[in-house]
């Protein structure tokens, strides 16, 4: 009975997250549907008169387009997930304590940091598709710059929490050795935190333009490097082996490599249509992003926090709970990938634009 009672808060918080997801999705659809837009991502189905096609044919075309958009998005988040799971695997072979500390550190990072960043970044899911299909596509770059300013401000309290995490974890009755190593894990993870925030923005910057494969290509190149770094820094030769701290350092380096590669790709291989020159305007209209971002944080946090916090409480009742908790945390991370797949539907819905064919919009929804 006790485990069931323990899981009830998770079910309530997850249900709240689903409701917030639906509200945000409907609000985005309404915003994109009623604002005059100009289609910029060319698809064959957009040239077809909806009145001359059957609903079945249009449904098949929309399904085909959304599948084409979804595959690279899914691949992007799957490869990004591999960056985190690689450190868990490498540290799991060191000791049970190292595995417990890495799991606790990753869970704390997700609850206090990554969920906040993803919540604020979800605001761009609303802003960028409509900006790209407007008469001023350079607003995509401007809103991305504004979000970077908001992200920079939000990183400060996150970094403070991570650097004082040992005392917080001890206050929460964690084992002293595990709490100490988890705090060390978080301190070295700070190296990659700004890059993680930048990547969450740059990914949406590319995908809002229909360039769904760009983030996938970047992470596809970095993922093998991350695996090599984890092996080298955790298990490599004595001259370069760092042991436990090698795992968070490897992940942080990988996040920074993704940022550098994204900048290079955006500067040299992507048209400048969506880019806005750096100016003081990036410090204006930040209140809109903060307001929408807080709603996004509530949406994301209600889902992430519920299973991770309650999952930890549940598995603390079991023997060898650190191992079970590590497996549970990894499964939660993999399931979470699917929550990012709605963005390609937002892009398609926004790209229907000025013409606003209601049937196609309904099918995309």
From TrEMBL:
Any one GO molecular function term: xenobiotic transmembrane transporter activity
Assigned keywords, A-Z: Membrane, Transmembrane, Transmembrane helix
Signal peptide range in chain numbering: none
Gene Ontology CC terms, in alphabetical order: membrane
Pfam families xref list: MatE
InterPro entries (alphabetical): MATE_fam
TM helices/strands, residue ranges: 6-26, 148-172, 178-198, 210-229, 249-270
Family under the similarity heading: Belongs to the multi antimicrobial extrusion (MATE) (TC 2.A.66.1) family.
Protein name: MATE efflux family protein
